[in-house]
Amino acid sequence: GSTIGILGGGQLGRMMAVAALQLGYKVIGFAPEGDNVAADASSDFITADWDDAAALAEFTGRCDVVTWEFENVPLSTVAAIPQHLLACPARALEVAQDRLSEKAFAASLGGTPAPYARVETEDDFAAALVRVGTPGILKTARDGYDGKGQWRVRSALEASGVRFPGVTCIYEVFVIYETEFSVILVRGKDGSVKFWDSTANLHDGGMLAQSILPAGALVEAQVPAARQLAAKVADALGYVGVLTLEFFATREGPMFNEMAPRVHNSGHWTIEGAATSQFENHIRAICGLPLGVTKTRFEAIEMRNIVGDDALRAHAILAEPGEPHLHLYGKREVREGRKMGHVTRVGHAIR
Ligand code: ATP
Ligand code: MG
Ligand code: MG
């Protein structure tokens, strides 16, 4: 098709739209009212609620293929889209929108999540503290991102200070890990799969701060098993496009944390650092084009998020040595803890 519809209006959609425009496509976005920074890079953008049937019909009527940049698009919205337009089966969203279902799904395919329990009530929470133990983390099963909707529980005693939020939660063991890493793959319509190198991911307060290559020996040793799981997940979902799985590299091997059925913050380095970026390959995949080579172009790469009011000083980064690549998302509102942009620095080219 020649017009790509993107559900969601954030920075992932913005960078996806830039890649799509470069390949000659038109892009129409769709998202509810908000700081829809994808609109700046789109040919057109429809602002409407997810359940606005008329607006959705107008959107889909103008698209040749529809994808998403936001994993919490309501399933009812996706169900209302003519199914032949969907680049990827909605099942991927369904599984990934719920931490309990994504962990069960990964486990059913041979993955190892941290021990966890479903928590529907205060009593479930008390029982989970005993069964799963402490330290642990209570997370809302749905809608969490950037570490929001999570409460760390250091000890059973301290648990009394954590209020059960009254929605379905998961309580999981606090994992002792050496490094976090992600597997990012792209799967084409023909089922072919390519992986980018896995970065070591550093978080700050539950939010990604930095992604680094090389990721270190432990991660490198665990990447093959993690990739195997990611490929099984992608195959089982009939996935098309970019898919991300997050892992903890523990002494016992890769522990599955969560999946994102989309391009991912830990893949932003691929714009300058890989032969083909995650954004371009996502577009290629959903449009049925040949996938691009994913190989890393530099011996060392660092991607760092620009968060909150650091964005106000971000242009100063351009004066720093080492030719930093600055990306600002054009968000109108600067808020503490909000991802405003990122900067990628690369080392010597691999020859
Ligand atoms: P994202 O923004 O990646 O979607 P999220 O809000 O969905 O994040 P998680 O990825 O589950 O939530 O958790 C955020 C971060 O909190 C993790 O990357 C990790 O650093 C830390 N964390 C989460 N769960 C655990 C755990 N069980 N043990 C140790 N650390 C954890
Ligand atoms: Mg998440
Ligand atoms: Mg995560």
Automatic annotation (TrEMBL):
Keywords: ATP-binding, Ligase, Nucleotide-binding, Purine biosynthesis. It comes from the Bacteria. One of its GO terms (biological process) is 'de novo' IMP biosynthetic process. It is an enzyme of class 6 (ligase). It catalyses: 5-amino-1-(5-phospho-beta-D-ribosyl)imidazole + hydrogencarbonate + ATP = 5-carboxyamino-1-(5-phospho-D-ribosyl)imidazole + ADP + phosphate + 2 H(+). InterPro entries: ATP-grasp (IPR011761), ATP-grasp_carboxylate-amine (IPR003135), ATP_grasp_subdomain_1 (IPR013815), PreATP-grasp_dom_sf (IPR016185), PurK (IPR005875), PurK_C (IPR040686), PurT/PurK_preATP-grasp (IPR054350), Rudment_hybrid_motif (IPR011054). Coiled coil: none annotated. Residues 103-287 form the ATP-grasp domain. The keyword Glycoprotein does not apply. ATP binds at residues 99, 139, 144-150, 172-175, 180, 203, 257-258. SUPFAM superfamilies: Glutathione synthetase ATP-binding domain-like, PreATP-grasp domain, Rudiment single hybrid motif. Catalyzes the ATP-dependent conversion of 5-aminoimidazole ribonucleotide (AIR) and HCO(3)- to N5-carboxyaminoimidazole ribonucleotide (N5-CAIR). Catalyzes the ATP-dependent conversion of 5-aminoimidazole ribonucleotide (AIR) and HCO(3)(-) to N5-carboxyaminoimidazole ribonucleotide (N5-CAIR). Homodimer. Belongs to the PurK/PurT family. NCBIfam families: PRK06019.1-2, PRK06019.1-5, purK. This is N5-carboxyaminoimidazole ribonucleotide synthase. The gene is purK.
